[in-house]
Specification:
Layout (H helix, E strand, L loop, with lengths): L7 H16 L5 H19 L19 E3 H14 L5 H15 L4 H6 L21 H4 L6 H7 L15 H20 L6 E3 H10 L3 H6 L11
Antiparallel strand pairs: 1-2
């Protein structure tokens, strides 16, 4: 994307084809993880890597709502399970379930002012799931760290500041999300998005649902009510 000139329709079409081809090879959790990793690599290649102000431990934006597609949630859950000691898994699941209930009807503004941070931040404010972070998170960047601090200050209720960001990258990530959703539809896999903590809690508590997802089964509407 030299000069940051992008053809979003062409990119979405390309990513749809990539996702559709990859998804046709996913038959279990391991296969789905490989698919999502390869798709993320394709998205990153197209999105580019403009120099940004974001750094590990800079978590000002990690109070915003994040929607994920079900395969994203399933892969994050599996990644967590592998890296969480067995004795700690119940507490991690409980933490996510509590977060899901807490943020269920919260808008971004309320989350900011209540400082309701992402449950995957570690004590240093770093992303604990960075290698498998959602597409939505990949699209949020900042070119000015102080602007982030100002806009996302929980004590400021009406900030007139805006955060300069890599808008080309954001647009590519947005169409990547849509392309993946359309590819899921093509494979008869449920493409409805879900709040991050709720989705990960679902698969962390019931990992067998990954196979149900890949087999095209529908999930209960109560997850979204």
């Amino acid at each position: 994307m030299k000069g940051r000139d992008i053809d979003l329709c062409k990119i979405e079409s390309r990513l749809f084809q990539v996702a559709a081809e990859l998804l046709s090879t996913a038959h279990d959790q391991k296969g789905l993880a490989a698919v999502m990793s390869a798709f993320a690599d394709s998205v990153e290649e197209l999105a580019g890597h403009q120099e940004v102000a974001c750094r590990a431990g800079c978590s000002h934006c990690c109070v915003l709502n994040v929607a994920v597609l079900l395969p994203e949630a399933a892969v994050i859950a599996a990644w967590l399970e592998l890296r969480t000691p067995e004795n700690d898994r119940a507490s991690v699941l409980q933490k996510l379930q509590k977060q899901a209930v807490r943020v269920r009807w919260m808008e971004d503004g309320e989350r900011i002012h209540r400082s309701t941070v992402c449950p995957f931040l570690d004590q240093a404010g770093r992303c604990g799931i960075y290698p498998v972070r959602p597409l939505v998170c990949r699209g949020v960047t900042s070119l000015d760290r102080e602007a982030c601090r100002e806009v996302l200050d929980p004590s400021v209720f009406d900030s007139s500041f805006a955060v300069p960001m890599d808008t080309a990258r954001k647009l590519v990530i947005d169409v990547a999300f849509c392309a993946l959703a359309h590819a899921l539809d093509r494979q008869k896999i449920m493409s409805r998005s879900i709040e991050l903590s709720a989705g990960v809690a679902l698969f962390l508590g019931r990992p067998e649902l990954v196979r149900s997802l890949l087999q095209g089964e529908s999930f209960p509407a109560s997850l979204w009510e």
